[in-house]
Amino acid sequence: MDRRHFLQISSAGLLELALSSQLSPLEAKRLRGKNKYSIVILGDTHYDTEPVSVYHEKFSWPEGWQSRVRRGEFARYGEMWRDRGPRLIRRAARLIDKDTAMVLHMGDLVQGDCGDAGVHRQMLDNAMHLMKTTLGGVPFVTVCGNHDIRGVGAREVYDEYMSKRMSQELGKKIEGTDFYYTLGDDAYIVLDFNHRPKDALIEQMLRETEGARHTFIISHGPVIPADTGHCRWCFYGQDTPEYNEGRRHFRAEFAKRQAIVLCGHVHTTEFFDWWGDDGRITQLIMSSVWIDPSRANYVVDEEGPSNFGGLRKQIKKLRNGQPPKDESAFYAEYQPGLRAYSHSLAAGSYKLNVSPKHVTIDFYAGDSEDISHTFVLR
């Protein structure tokens, strides 16, 4: 498909499907065929509440490090949603303006670990209701995160519930957790990194969106590995011959499309501009996990391509008590192509601004009224 064909399909069909059911005719007409718009973005939110018994009364896990980690998360995220979580969402709502096409969520909408399928469905529904009411009813699109499907019956509940909700939000039939939509001349390809990547479907979506002005890859986990103790928590991240081949193949395919990757998962605000495989991938990892007050401050604690992977080297033990595996060769694949890199623990809300001249993301740490940093993606 050439660019002209893509533009004909985009302007005449998919954008109208995506927006007309959510916006007034005047608003839909304003956005259709217009290539200047914004998207408000939230990273992981891990929606939860206090007391723990509301969502986790039926949670059961054999005693050990995983049980301790998960019960600790219940306490932390319940406390976060007492005050800081709602404040952050209300701040994101104030970023919505006349050019805002939708709100995009990077996955881990909820904490999960309910121990019961019915309770998990209620958790998802409560989180969606909170987002929709606080964010003013604009289309709300989310990608599948690992916590969204964690617990008894959670995968089945999420797939059934979210396929219906995303169909409503986008105004087109969504089947499964890998799909795409378009806004103006731009393609948004949503990938579920929780299962083995569906190669044929991804290839098909890339073909069907060929000719897009910008290609956005939306995934809970990153495409370029994060500087973390769990750097293999990324797209095609397992260290096997099959997965390494798949990772390198799609890295090249995304680079050829000059892809912009928007993702979450590791609870950081982490920027990458990587040139390689005869192309370019720009990636921003985003977090809305305002887990403690300090994360309302945008402080860069690692910067520059030569420092990529340095934070992981400082980790002595993983959460399971084991030392981290040496992954220096994994990071070395990416270091030569990195032209820009920065890492911060700050959490907040984000605003993607797309125009014929630029693609930028404004970051608002915590519930700051002022821009903490602007990332230039194109």
Describe the sheet with the most strands: 8 strands, mixed
Specify the structural class: alpha/beta
Figure out the total of helices: 11
Mean pLDDT comes to 92
If you consult CATH, what is the topology? Answer: Purple Acid Phosphatase, chain A, domain 2
Secondary structure: helix percent: 25-40%
Shape descriptor: globular
In CATH terms, what is the architecture? 4-Layer Sandwich
What is the CATH domain class? Alpha Beta
Query: What is the domain tally?
Result: 1
Q: Strand arrangement, largest sheet?
A: 4-5-6-7-9-8-11-10
Strand content: 15-25%
What is the tally of beta strands?
Answer: 14
- What is the H-and-E element order? HHEHHHEHEHEEHEHEEEEHHEEEE
CATH superfamily: Metallo-dependent phosphatases
- End-to-end gap: 23 Å
- The low-confidence parts are 11-31
- Cα-based radius of gyration, to the nearest Å: 20 Å
Which characteristics define this entry?
Purple Acid Phosphatase, chain A, domain 2; 11 helices; six-stranded mixed beta sheet; 378 residues; eight-stranded mixed beta sheet; alpha/beta; 33% helix
